[in-house]
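Onboarding guide, step 5: your first structure request.
Type a short instruction followed by the sequence, for example:

Predict the 3D structure of this protein.
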Amino acid sequence: MVRTPGRTGAAVAATAAAATVLGVGHLVAALVDPNASPFYVLGATVIDHTPKWLKDNAIRWFGTNDKLALAITMAVVMVLAAALIGQLARRSPALGAGILAGLGVAVAVLALLRPSATPGFAIPSLVGAVAGAAALWLLFRAPADHPSGEGPARRTFLLAVAGVAAGAAAAGAAGRFLGSRLRDITADRAAFVLPPVADPAPPVLPEMDLPVSGLTRFVTPADEFYRIDTALQLPALTRAQWRLRIHGMVDRELELDFEDLRARPAVAATITLTCVSNEVGGDLAGTATWTGYRLTDLLADAGPSSEADMILSRSVDGFTAGTPLDAVLGNPDALLAVAMNGAALPVAHGYPARMVVPGLYGYVSATKWVVDLEVTRFDRARAYWTERGWAPRAPIKTASRIDVPAAFATLPAGPVTVAGVAWAQGRGITGVEVQVDDGPWRPATLATAYSLDTWRQWTWIWDAPPGTHTLRVRAVDGTGAVQTEARVTPFPDGATGRHNRVVTVR
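The system replies with structure tokens like these:
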């Protein structure tokens, strides 16, 4: 006699079946397109439809671990949904299998709605749905709870569940392995040769990078550089596959490959990038030396119309950014970058090519994995984040940060070094001042400036008296404007306010 699994058994069985949908779908996606994996389709859809307040809080809470947090949250939700399906399947295995298959079909539809989708994007979810529904049907038709809670029927059920779960895990692992083998860019990056640089970036001098323990280094190592983007799965694009199309309001449409780039003179520029989601005192900013090709030269070859005022850049995964055309034309440091700090771009930072435009927040200027530049107008097109309410033009605001001493540090009385960084890309930093409690603002000592487009280190020696104190910092940019004390959130065009740290002196 076939008995229905108990509540716990049903939840476990349905979870194993749901894992089969994802595992088999991930395996099939390795042969179709990794971005068509059901899990990644769901993740990308969630990212695209996340409310602004939740997106802001996710970055505030998790920072660059926001993708991991999303994946864990999705996994928990999927387990809970599978448990519910399991309870329905106790009444009718056909109903449970049908619901699971229907959800797989829904994911297939979502896959077809992805910006880079082809008709084949539906296949992984559909195949996964069939496999998951079949697994659920078989598990609920297997002998289950024995009246005594023991015996061969129960063991058979548990072995069946374990087998399905193992199969799902094996399929997922195989999909990951095949995906990396079929679209592995590790070897492609390893074979990358830095192009000869006709116009190198000036060197970073010792007086620009002060030897203060705990102070942010002037140049940020690639593996420490912040990463904020919408890609749940990093695009895998080799140099041979890469193409850049320049079109729209231009005299001549162009399509460039890497060989075309190699025929051009490469340049290098050291630039500080900042994420618009950076809170006051946050660490979503970094400086690197970028090597690539001047965007103004690439656009000049296409001949942009005098009526155009925007470049709509597109990533291979469909993300778009709208960059003011006048921020690029004539700007020698606006680059199509192919290298970072003297090596090929890391995949997480846009390999094989990305945009870097000084003075603008990344969401309007720093498209990674870029494959398309459409010359257009702001009144004709809107980019990914501007469609979600963020400002279409986003010059970086003046900001400063205290790096040392650490927040809530306990310090000995006497001389204390207070240090940090300040930035106002495009305008530069001409002054930094520090305030203790409600006392007067005192001028800090600035490190030598590198350029208007990079941050600047500063230090101040404080004769610290015993007690609990609040340290505040403000910067003065190259126009003479003092950093505002008005505290506003990042939405819609960047945070403002003055960073402070509370310390105790004994």
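Each response can be followed by summary notes, for example: Residues 67 and 232 are 6 Å apart (CA to CA).
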